[in-house]
Request: fold
Amino acid sequence: MATTQMNVRIDADVKRRGDAALARAGFTPTQAVRRVWEHVAALADSPEEVVRLLGEPDEVDSRERLLLRESADALGLVDALVAERGPLSAEGLDYDELRYRAWKERLTERGCA
Reply:
């Protein structure tokens, strides 16, 4: 199983209290994060369930989430087009590069890049 490292910033007091609560329950912070990610990954097709689980995001996070969802939708359209019409090529660029450029353009239009 391939793994990756995550680095997050969290209020020091929240971390201290959270670590203590997890220790009392018999979990390490790593175990807790893994379980949260596994649970959220299982809810990938139900974002409303993720919101129910984690609570309402603040306004900035909500805007960013909407932009990312729109970007993912746009990339899905590219994937559908390729599935229907075959691989794209332009200026000697491969499909992955074109897909990345479309994603980057969409984020730039939305002021996120």
